[in-house]
């Protein structure tokens, strides 16, 4: 920012412009180039961080991405809200003060440099200019030389000395304005940045007048300390408004929570529309909104879309996102440990919390989101068959099941079956923490592409009495087997089935290792797994017999039924790792969409635009306006004419231009030339 005015003494006017008054070391430091460059580098680094690192996200999302340690480090440095961090605002303030100090100290020098022609310099000083030459001359036509320079576009000034006359010319004097405009523009841009900063909010927070809300609660439970009114003259926040609903508040991310900004108008969303590509990906989305305000004679009805905002007074209303607006859901909650099929039916909606009382404890069902489209890449086989690289897996619900201690399991359940390896499955994903990927359980679909057969099979495995009854019917007591042995066999099959249902095949292995001597484990293991396999197949045949209305003796197990059984056993063996013993099935839905609006009030925006325009003008003056000076001085003592020139930029064409001027002068005033200097 600071400009070095150290020029050779020989090039300074005889009555040089006074240098800036000597200030204290601190003031000199404030106006120094080193400080300005350092501050600009800090702003550049901050801008890079703010561009790469997504700003003002949910704090938990940062913990998931970076881990608790680095999240704490980055948060303490203010990297999650760089442009609102105290150190960033402080850098802007220092840059403003530094640039203002520089301008104050150097503007007088620049202004005098614009006005001074340097006509009072000595002949010796002219001979020390970057370009100079001397010619013999008995006389000197000052007016003719003046006319010559003016014809070349120079402003001129004649100065009569005791030993001769000097005609000085200058053009491009406004080059110096480039320095002034660039410095002033930085001051203006910093002021605009400070206007749009959260400096006022930081002050209110320090004085205890403001505190962000960190809980997920309704508006009526948010304390007054977390509300902002008309006194907040600059903000950028967002709000999601479902179709047919209205809002007059805005949510501003702040620190680890949020603030509620009261708006002087009300926005109603009449309709939200979205278009998709053939792949199901969003193509465009727009909202029909109505804006009502006390000062409006009639409401403003318009449609906003991406890159087509609504401007009202100092406010800009952007279409920024979309999401679920509380879709209505019809759910069935299947108890996975129940001996009968008795699902709980719930008519609910997204963003609601439903209490669940089960035999294994009390839970809360937190319905977080509904997605109509779920686009995933196709397999190589599917791509070869359909020619498409992606396909839509259909609607899903995302929810959490939370126990009384606060522990939560997150689920992603698909409504429609999906084709995997030529078979249809209902997919359900589960994870213990948001940092983990979903682990999917594949429930095989029956011939009607439903889950009915699976839940019947599961209920039968949970019903000990019914199991024994099926075993007795399918495996009658053989001759020669006493009652005790027969009962023991039936009980063993029932216990092995229950053990498998509760812990999978690993449960049977663990049971053998704990209860059977090591030397007999191999033999017992083969026997137990054979008995378990026979028990599971017996139960499955009973399910098929009832489904096909046949007897166990006449039912035929085709290839589909065989594959289904294998897939069902795989799914059931994974249930112990599925979290609480319940499965939430979406039976039907009514989608309600919401539009995500971003509303800004930015008084500093126009200030920054003005400063940026001024910066462009200043750069133009610096790079494209050359300040050129020429002197033609006659010495009556030596009878010699000295021509000299200098340029703010030592370009190759400068020497050519000077040589052309010398030749022009020679043509008009000194036809016979005898150089005594150099035009270098």
Overview of the structural elements:
With 680 residues, the chain is α+β, with helices and mostly antiparallel strands. Helices cover 39% and strands 29% of the residues. The protein has 16 helices and 26 strands. A hairpin with a 2-residue loop joins strand 2 and strand 3. Helix 11 (464-474) packs across helix 13 (521-548). The radius of gyration is 42 Å and the shape is elongated. The model is unreliable at 1-19 and 672-680 (pLDDT under 50).
As a percent range, the share of strand residues is 25-35%
What's the overall average pLDDT, rounded?
A: 89
Q: Which structural class fits the helix and strand makeup?
A: alpha+beta
**N-C termini distance:** 32 Å
Count of alpha and pi helical runs: 16
Task: Report Rg.
Answer: 42 Å
Largest sheet features: 7 strands, antiparallel
DSSP, total strands: 26
Question: How would you describe the shape?
Answer: elongated
Helix content: 25-40%
> Would you identify the regions where 5 or more consecutive residues have pLDDT less than 50?
1-19, 672-680
